[in-house]
Design brief:
- By secondary structure, this protein is α/β, with parallel strands linked by helices.
- The protein contains eleven helices and 21 strands.
- Helix 5 crosses helix 6.
- It is globular.
- The structure holds zinc ion.
- Zinc ion (ZN) binds next to loops.
Length: 438
C-alpha cells in the first residue's frame, strides 16, 4: 500500500457514533436552511408533515421525504431556468452546470462562490489526499470542457491546492497521447472506457503508456475502477494505480477510493449516506445491497435532501486498512437501478457482464448487450469483438465457449454470443450506453 495521507484526520477517523452525531447536527441545520429558502422543500416537508425541529435522532431522518430527479425537472419546467429548489438567487451564483441528460431532460444547477471555492475544494481535498496526490504532481485532464460537471470540480480544487494542470480539452485522442509524452504528467483522469480507449490509440501509435510518468489514473462516470478485471487492465495499460471517484452533477462528487483500494469511501463529514430498498424505500443495514441515498450536508446553493442516486451499492462500515472510518461502498457502484435489467427471472447488472468481457483476453474492451423483452422467448445477446486480427476461428470459438460457461455459472443465464468485426461496435468518449432493450 502507498503511504496514507489524510486531509482531515480528526474527522476521517471518528468513531461511527461520533460521526453519526456530527452528521445529525449538520442534517438538522441543513433541513432548517432549505425549509427557509427553497419553496420546493417547504412544500415537500409540509406535505409529509415533518418539520426541521422534528429531527431529534439519526433514525428520524427516515421521516424526511426522498428527492428524485423528476421533481427537479418538473420544478425547472415550472420555474425556469433554475426551478424552486435552489437556496441562492441567480446573481449569487458563479457557475452553472447541467446533467448530460442521458436519462431524460437535463437538470441545471447553479453554484455560489462559497460552494465552488470552499465546499467543492474541501470535498475534493479528501479525494486528493485519499489518492496520495501532492503539490509535486502534475495532472493531465483529457476532457471536453462544457456544461457537464465531469472533471471541472476536481481540476479546480486540485489547481487551488497547487497541483499543476495540463488541460486536455479540444484535442484528438492522438494529440492527447502526444501531450502526455511531452508534458510528462503523473496523474490522468477519465471514464474507464475512455482511459482504455486511449490505451488502444497509444498502442496503434507505438507508444507504451506504462513507460510514461503517469502513476495515478483517476476514473469516474462508470463503475470501471471497481470492476476487478477493468481495474487490472487499466493498471497494466498505464503502469499506474487506478482509483475510483464517484459523484453526479446534481449531488457533486462524494466518494473516493483510498490507497488501500478496498472499496470507495464516502466523504461522510460532508454527505449523509443511506442505503434503502429501491422498491419499498425502507432503510437497509450495512452489508445489504440497495439504492444509495445521499444528503449534501454542506452545500449552500442547492443542497439535495435524501436524494435517490439510482446507484446500487453495499456499505462496509468497518475501519479501512488506511485507518479511515468513513464507510466504504464495497465494490463501488454495483450497478444502476435503471440499468439493471431482468432476464430469465434474474437481475443483471451490465457491470457484471463487463467484468467477464474484460476478463477474456481474446475479446476487446467493447461490447454490447441486447436484452429482449420478457416473455419474447428470445435469448439474451452479447456482442463482442476480437482483441486482435491474428486470432484464429478456433481460438475465438474456444473463448466464446468459456465466456458462455462463466456467464451461465455466475449469472444463471446462457447468452448468445456474437463476434463482431474489429471496430464494428460503437465507441464512447463519455458515459457508455451498452445495453439495448428490445
Ligand atoms: Zn481506506
Amino acid at each position: 500500500m502507498e503511504k496514507v495521507i489524510m486531509f482531515k484526520p480528526e474527522l476521517e477517523t471518528l468513531s461511527r457514533e461520533a460521526l453519526l452525531e456530527y452528521q445529525l447536527g449538520l442534517f438538522r441545520k441543513q433541513m432548517a436552511y432549505v425549509y427557509e429558502r427553497a419553496p420546493m422543500y417547504k412544500r415537500k416537508f409540509n406535505q409529509a408533515g415533518v418539520r426541521p425541529g422534528d429531527i431529534k435522532t439519526i433514525d428520524d431522518v427516515q421521516r424526511v421525504p426522498f428527492t428524485v430527479k423528476e421533481e427537479l425537472r418538473q420544478s425547472q419546467e415550472k420555474y425556469p431556468p433554475f426551478g424552486d429548489f435552489h437556496c441562492i438567487r441567480p446573481e449569487e451564483g458563479v457557475r452553472v452546470f447541467q446533467t448530460t441528460g442521458t436519462t431524460g431532460i437535463p437538470v441545471r444547477s447553479l453554484l455560489s462562490k462559497k460552494d465552488w471555492y470552499v465546499n467543492y475544494y474541501e470535498q475534493f481535498m479528501y479525494f486528493m489526499y485519499g489518492y496520495g496526490i501532492t503539490k509535486s504532481d502534475m495532472m493531465f485532464v483529457p476532457f471536453n470542457y462544457g456544461l457537464y460537471l465531469a472533471w471541472w470540480g476536481l481540476q479546480a480544487a486540485f489547481e487551488q491546492a497547487g497541483v499543476l494542470i495540463v488541460p486536455g480539452g479540444g484535442q484528438t485522442s492522438e494529440d492527447r497521447i502526444k501531450n502526455i509524452m511531452e508534458w510528462k504528467p503523473t496523474v490522468v483522469c477519465g471514464t474507464p472506457t475512455y482511459i482504455l480507449f486511449l490505451g488502444d490509440i497509444a498502442k496503434k501509435m507505438g507508444v507504451d503508456l506504462s513507460k510514461t510518468n503517469v502513476r495515478i489514473v483517476i476514473t469516474a462516470g462508470e463503475p470501471g475502477a471497481q470492476v476487478p478485471s477493468t481495474k487490472k487492465q487499466i493498471e497494466a495499460t498505464w503502469g499506474a494505480r487506478n482509483y475510483d471517484d464517484i459523484g453526479s452533477t446534481e449531488i457533486s462528487n462524494f466518494g473516493f477510493e483510498c490507497v488501500a483500494q478496498k472499496g470507495t469511501h464516502a466523504v461522510e463529514s460532508m454527505f449523509l449516506a443511506e442505503v434503502i430498498d429501491p422498491v419499498t424505500g425502507k432503510s437497509l443495514g450495512p452489508g445489504q445491497e440497495g439504492e444509495l441515498v445521499l444528503t449534501n450536508l454542506c452545500c449552500e446553493s442547492m443542497p439535495l435532501i435524501r436524494w435517490r442516486m439510482g446507484d446500487i451499492v453495499k456499505f462496509d462500515v468497518k475501519k479501512c486498512d488506511c485507518g479511515r472510518t468513513f464507510l466504504r461502498l464495497d465494490g463501488g457502484v454495483i450497478g444502476r437501478a435503471d440499468d439493471m435489467f431482468q432476464f430469465g427471472g434474474v437481475n443483471i447488472f451490465p457491470s457484471a457482464i463487463e467484468n467477464f468481457v474484460r476478463g477474456t483476453k481474446e475479446f476487446s474492451n467493447e461490447y454490447q448487450v441486447i436484452a429482449p423483452k420478457m416473455g419474447s422467448g428470445k435469448h439474451l445477446r452479447v456482442r463482442v469483438e476480437p482483441s486482435s486480427p491474428a486470432l484464429s476461428k478456433e481460438e475465438m470459438d474456444r473463448a466464446v465457449k468459456a465466456f458462455k460457461e462463466t456467464f451461465k455459472f455466475r449469472i444463471g443465464v446462457t447468452p448468445n454470443v456474437e463476434v463482431a468485426k474489429i471496430g464494428e461496435l460503437p465507441r464512447f468518449e463519455g458515459k457508455a450506453r451498452r445495453v439495448i432493450r428490445e
